[in-house]
Amino acid sequence: MNEISVPTIVRSNTIDILRALTMILMIFVNDLWSLSGIPEWLGHVERGVDGIGLADTVFPAFLFIVGLSLPFSIDSRRNKGATDLQLVQHILARTLALIVMGVFLVNGESINEAATGFSRRVWNPLCCLCFILIWNNYLKTINPTVVKCLKALGIIILICLAYIYRGGSDDLILRFAQHWWGILGLIGWSYLAAGLITLLARNNFYVIAGTWTFFAILSMLHHAKMMPSFFNIIPDPIRGGTLTGLALGGVVTSTIFRYFKDRKDDKSIFIVLLLCTASLVILTYITRPYWGIAKLGATPAWLFICSAFTILAFISLYWLVDLKGKSKWFTFIKPAGTDTLLCYLMPYFLYALIQLLGIVLPDILLTGGIGLVKSLLFAFLCVWMTGVLNHWGVRLKL
Q1: How does DSSP classify residue 34?
Q2: At what angle do helices 13-30 and 58-79 cross, to 10 degrees?
């Protein structure tokens, strides 16, 4: 299991479907703010509280899936002739794009509408439009000069937005800055570390598993306040260990999966990954008394239990999709798995459109079970819009 014979490995549909379901769940839980009278366990657990809600499992699942995809994507590019230098450049470019998007959307959270001159509902969709202009995978039929002009336009608008931005309160006006990395930025930093490690490991299971162990220990040292001071030069999403550990957990899982899949040994896939899940649950039990389970604290127990949840979801879907051939059940949500970033941006456009049109839903649609159905339908609307835009030639590719 030291290395994998990559040419015979075919990417599993399970990963795209798992990513799609996770994105739908992310949009769903992000819309819960609009509801009242819903179970507390659906939302986030407050900072400092030892516990986990459904919403606390979505982001780590997405990071884990980033790792699941990495060995497939890197080997696919290698098989197409990409050199290691080109792969490093690709990883750096994707990281930069995710960090830029994350920071711009984060600034929208604290925008001072009066000082800036327009509202958050203008800032967010305008930023998202620029992201599309810059990182759209344009059709080959479009004139290359037009493509360059559209990309340049997106960059210029973002620069102007950063310049005119004002945030904070009237007593303390803040300029555009990295207040925190945002969800996309955190994904970007975690992807950078996990991507470079996966690239350098060259499918060596022991190297990958060893680096996961290193970041898991790093997470514990961070929370025990035993980190050497010189580690502070490393960006906190990597230095904390937990987020990179989630992504590398996906790489470990993917490496195990590919090894046994290449040998057509599905039984071992389930046995080994279930043993990994059991081990993660044990680690959760051991570490929880020290730091609790907390998303906002990014604790080690949160790393372990969310990794276990995602492995269980992965092997369950693998059984249903690949072994039982039920991939057609998930055809409608395919855009959320193949163009996940565009799907993630859809709520920013929809919220702005709802406000622009002055749409106000009756309380009955924002309460209890009916409200939950509304939020789920909203998530499916975002998926449908993503599919429509894909059909029109809008497809984000970093």
Answers
A1: G
A2: 150
Measured CA to CA, the distance from residue 329 to residue 336 in angstroms comes to: 14
Do 287 and 281 meet the contact criterion of CB atoms below 8 Å apart?
A: no
Q: What is the pLDDT of residue 8?
A: 44
SS3 at position 247: helix
Report the C-alpha gap between 180 and 240 in whole angstroms.
14
Looking at the DSSP bridge assignments, the partners of residue 168 are 173
Amino acid identity for residue 116 in this structure: T
Q: Which of 67, 71, 68, 89 is nearest to 79 (CA)?
A: 71
C-alpha span between 139 and 126 (Å, rounded) = 22
Alpha helices in 292-361 (DSSP H): 300-318, 334-338, 340-357
Read off the amino acid at residue 352.
Answer: A
Mean pLDDT of successive 10-residue stretches along the chain, which has 398 residues: 49 89 96 92 90 95 96 94 96 97 94 91 95 95 95 97 92 89 95 97 96 96 88 90 97 96 95 98 97 94 97 97 93 94 96 90 93 96 96 91
Q: What does the alpha-carbon distance between residue 360 and residue 345 come to, in Å, rounded to a whole number?
A: 22
Using CB atoms within 10 A of its CB, is residue 30 exposed (0-12), middle (13-18) or buried (19+)? middle
Q: How far is the C-alpha of 59 from the C-alpha of 186, rounded, in Å?
A: 10
Confidence (pLDDT) at 397: 85
Contact 14, 314 (CB under 8 A): yes
Q: Please give the Cα distance from 261 to 268 (Å, whole number).
A: 9
The C-alpha atoms of residue 34 and residue 56 are separated, in whole angstroms, by 18
Strand partners, 169: 172
Look at the chain and count its residues.
398
Name residues whose C-beta falls within 8 Å of residue 19's C-beta, 6 or more positions apart in sequence. 62, 65, 69, 336, 337, 340
Helix (H, G, I), strand (E, B) or coil at 382: helix
Q: What is the DSSP string of 66-124?
A: HHHHHHHHHHHHHHTT--HHHHHHHHHHHHHHHHHHHHHHHHHHTB-HHHHSS-HHHHH
Question: Which residues have C-beta within 8 Å of that of residue 104, sequence separation ≥ 6?
Answer: 127, 158, 161, 162
Query: What is the distance between the terminal CA atoms of the chain, rounded to a whole angstrom?
Result: 31
Res 6: pLDDT:
44
Contact between residue 55 and residue 19 where contact means Cβ atoms under 8 Å apart: no
- Least Cα distance to 161 among 185, 130, 187, 136 occurs for 130
